[in-house]
Amino acid sequence: MRLLALEIERTVDGDVRGWLPVNEFTRVPSGGPGLAAVAMLVDALGGATALPAADPDWAITADLSIHLLPTGPIGELRADAHVRRRGRRTLVLDFDLLGDEAVPAGTATGSFTVVARPAHLVDVTFDTAGPRHLMIDPSPDGSDVLDRPYLEELGLVEHEPGVITIELRPEVSNNLSALHGAVHTAVMDAASASLGRPLLGPDAETSDVHLAFLNLARPGPMRAEAVAVGPPSPEGDRLTAEVRLVDADGRLCSYATTSVVTA
Amino acid sequence: MTPLEPIDEKPRPNFGARTSGVAAYLGMAVSELGDGTEPLAVLRGPFAAPAHITDADGRTPTGVLAALVDSIGGLASGIASMPDWIVTTNLTLRRSPGALSGQVGTGPLVLDTEVLRRGRSAVVTRTAVSSADGTPVATGWMTCAVLTPTGGPPPITRPIRPLLQEPVADPAFSTAPAEFFGLREGKAPGEVALDIIGRIRNPWGILHGGAMTVLADVAARSAVAGAPALEPTPGLVTADLITHYLSPGRVGPVVASAEVLGRRDREHLVRVIVRDHGADDRLLVESVVTVRHAG
Fold first, then answer.
1. Number of structural domains, chain A?
2. Is B134 an interface residue toward A (CB < 8 Å)?
3. pTM above 0.90, yes or no
4. Which of A239, A204, A207 shows the shortest CA–CA distance to A29?
5. What does DSSP assign to residue B81?
């Protein structure tokens, strides 16, 4: 979150909006931000929206979908979060994505399971209305500025087309010392694009994901493998894939289906 | 299966409706692989793809395919949840892009379903769809919430074997999906309505989840084509469909409204919202659909 310099704004009506700067380290061939970086924005806004909505209970992400449109070169992505359903046990949010405040960039949805608030989180309070600001302040020494591709920064390693591993380091973990939810999505993105490049060309990028969080991902390293669902389109511009992410014990931690397209 | 939050404070279910409702229309003969002693069932559902359901090429429409995934995935989830039962909360279906046009992916299909996770409050299943020769046609997965239904779960005998059922005399069961589900054109392209008639209610009396995916599929293609909803949309096929079930449909008429969000070359990204007009426009479903110019 700090590396990506995400910003957030919360209105008095409870609406939540966030921004992701798009630069050479987060951009994909079609000009907009890569799905992995968008996932971090959506996940962060999802938490900022779902947790107050679930209060006094707690909310855990159950699944996340992101659908990207080609924006061409943009400098910033905005996401507006909306609560679509607040039930006793389920919370559903959707997100409108907009490039440079004007270009349609896609949409996202997230489902959350509402659970009793864990004892160690009873004192957690949520921000009230506030203007646009960084979600996490930059480190004083400037060491947390993204200076290489985001997926590289996460420590993803490609072993063969469709196969990606990641070590479980504090930088990619959540407060339960398991792989962060948005990083799950980043690994799925990387595995899908990796699978797609030999089939669609070097500019293949993941445009679409729907991911189910199944188990806490630990211990590391984690391994994701993407498998094609049949051949690409006859036009060579699209591929459907399934991706499974397992931890070092071989336990299935998340599962996704994705679409990979040419830029 | 069933959209969210349907079960409390409602009439007891009528499981006999399974022989004269959406399940009978789909006609998928589901069997369990194994002897039925494992807590998690692995299911196989052959689908004959009868001509009145498929398009002119013999391809099963994506909305119907999603209804089949809902049906078999719901059964696997329900078995995993016994003695409780389940309601579908969301479902995703992606077709293989190599099977969107031409002869690939036409004709009879086989659905294979496994449980990916059975938790205390939710079950996740995955369904692979292939043609009779094993060619991948689509993949789907769905999440169900676990609930304790009034009147208990449906009677289930394991191992699961196909229900022996008499042919339904009602001629509606031999009509195209739009007619069976009672779709009506809305006020503009992208708008589709239906009334919650008896045959499209589930055993709990609620609009069947498969009706929602059929609605979303038709509404999305209509919006992209800019044509009335019941007009054919040659060359347009729904490639992906993700549906979030937000509330149960009880009253009707139910109206789906599709909005095209943008385009990527041959594909259009569409959001479909479904509301129950008879229940103060209650939001029932939000769906995100990719419609592709195929062939």
1. 2
2. no
3. yes
4. A204
5. H
